[in-house]
Amino acid sequence: MILFPMELLIITAAALALGSFSTALIYRVPRNIPWAFGTSKKGEPTAGRSVCTSCKAVLSPLDLVPVFSWLFLRGKCRQCKTLIPARYPLTELGVVLACLGAYAVFGFNAYTFFIMAAIPFLMALLVIDLDHMILPNQLVFIVGLIGLGHLLFVFFSSSFTMDRFELVAMYVVAALFYAGLSWFLGWFLTKILKKDALGFGDVKFFAVAGLWLGLSNVAPFLILSGLLGIVFSVVWQKVKKEAVFPFGPALITSLYVVLLLRGSLLL
Ligand SMILES: [Zn+2]
Questions:
Q1: Separation of 52 CA from ligand 1 center, angstroms?
Q2: CA of 47 to the centre of ligand 1 (A)
Q3: pTM surpassing 0.90?
Q4: Where are the domains of the chain?
């Protein structure tokens, strides 16, 4: 692992922008506010400029520097002084650390960029699941598309020696296998525990995880997400005093950790 200052600078700058994008997703997706382009049905608000969620003042570029603006403004809106929750800079920081983690493990290459492209969506899924107990379809779908993009990249990169058709087929089969397995686990646990154990959103996320991780990583992914799920459910019951807990955070963390541990197909 060798870190180059120039690369580190580029990765950090990109990661800060992705972190800011992720917080926009977290605010907008559950409220059905467009985040990429176009306007909502009522014509407002648009996917354009970011505004203060309290006083609707349009935020200047100085207010939008990830993490630093929040520190500089001491967590308050410049106009209306409404407190901006610490979760915004924390989410941005989480995205930055996740991106730096991918760079530290894989270096400055295409694989790191594919992972970095998925990170703001994964972080948004994690926080939205904590808030609303849903994994929005559009975000799960986009993480799947980026995974597919990664596969196509591997397929067309000539340096690869293994049978490319076989490789891509293996990952598509993995997606179906993960989905089938999680559906079965959900059905089985629901029978035993006599309550809903896995949501259908979780099943779709399993399919996407299969697309990223392939068949050979089924076991570590299942074991890690099971363990994290147990730890997380205990913490959730202590803090929130609710029996039902979102499984998404455990799944998302496991996907990221196993992605980093298993090494890259491209290297
Ligand atoms: Zn304000």
A1: 5
A2: 18
A3: no
A4: 1-108, 109-267
